[in-house]
Amino acid sequence: MSSFFRRLGGRGLAGMPGVHCAADLVRFARDAVAECRLLADRARAAAPTVSLLYDFDDVSRTFCAAADPIDAMRQLHCDPSFVEAAHEAHAELFAFVADLNADGALYAPLEELRRRADAGEPIPLGERSATRAAQRQPGTLTSEERHVLDEFLRDFLLGGAHLARPQRDALVARLSEHENLGISFCAHAAESSLLVELSESDLGGVPAVPTRAGSRPGTVRVSTDYANTLLLWLQNSATRERVHRAALSRSAENIDVLHRLRAVRQEIADTLGYASYTDLTVAGNMLNKAQDIEQLLRSVQDHIRGRCMKELAVLRREKEEFEGSATIHAWDSLFYMGRGKAGAFQLDGRVLADFFPAGTLCQGLILHLRAVIRSQDSTCSRIAI
């Protein structure tokens, strides 16, 4: 557990000490940032020794101990007030880490540590590493420490710590805009569920989904949140097409967000010296260029093409038997693959559903979430399904 958590003490929602309501999230994030600043100041004043890595690790662990549960709140909480507060708390944390990763005074001693390691120069252990002296070759970094050093340096390079001040400030602004665009995209997607009007007869045989009264007698309206369920069970092809197109038409405002996001990502890549944002994100991976990844995908494509063609043949056969046409559209695949598997194995989703009652599944998911986000008390019940 982070020393920051131990110092705060007490219990709280999702394992965050003192967090019991939405308003506490922002305060908790600000406390975490203040603690990280103190730890960063200690690292900033340290000499380039092995101990410096452990100082940076303190900053990283304290930051992640706050950022991880707050991000869980953004993604999982059912109460809009908690989600909104978690977004605000996340913004506080992101602003801090963006400034931190652009801090040249923090980057310089790490870069010096790497220079000494690459040159084979002796590296002092420092006070915090003295107890680990027996576990290493004198004056060197262990393989784990070298990996951690490279990861920290990568964060600083991607944050622009090595750039001149004007470029660095511009990059931080673009990174902040990139983060805000991502939040906007998710918010639009969550808020823009559409209602598609269906006849009650169309829903015959469809598992129960929430409905609202339609504009005409004999009709109901269903949210596109349930599009996959509808596409799996609706027998009428024209109705499936309407549901499919309605589901794709939600969040129209995200078209502008995506255009701007693409432009901002290219600006970030250009500033950091990469050909594209894809090249930037995969740098340091085993496959570290976009063209290498594309080549791998094309080689995988050759191996799976035969299986895909077999599945397409199943879809065409099922549709020809049911509709008299073998032309497969995007809104057909779920329905006819379901029919094909049901026929092959003599069962369908309704048979399987008897073994997985909804109440039991929800209880299991709640237990899983409690384990994942390390809840310390009963306030975890506020994270509802």
Describe it.
This protein is mainly alpha-helical and 385 residues long. Helix content is 64%, strand content 3%. The chain is elongated, with a radius of gyration of 27 Å. The two termini are 27 Å apart. The model is unreliable at 375-385 (pLDDT under 50).
Topology:
Blueprint: H1 3-8, H2 22-44, H3 50-76, H4 80-101, H5 104-119, H6 143-159, H7 165-191, E1 195-199, E2 212-213, E3 219-223, H8 227-233, H9 237-248, H10 254-271, H11 277-282, H12 290-323, H13 333-345, H14 349-353, H15 358-372
Antiparallel strand pairs: 1-3, 2-3
Helix pairs in contact: 2-3, 2-4, 3-4, 4-6, 4-7, 5-6, 7-10, 8-13, 12-13
Q: Judging from the principal axes of the Cα atoms, what is the shape?
A: elongated
Task: List the helices and strands in order.
Answer: HHHHHHHEEEHHHHHHHH
Q: What does the average pLDDT come to? A: 85
> What is the CA–CA distance across the termini?
27 Å
Strand adjacency order, main sheet: 1-3-2
Question: Which runs of at least 5 residues are low in confidence (pLDDT < 50)?
Answer: 375-385
Tally of helical segments: 15
Structural class determined from secondary elements: mainly alpha
Q: What fraction strand?
A: under 5%
Q: Biggest β-sheet: count, sense, barrel?
A: 3 strands, antiparallel
| Cα-based radius of gyration, to the nearest Å | 27 Å
Helix content: 55-70%
Number of beta strands: 3
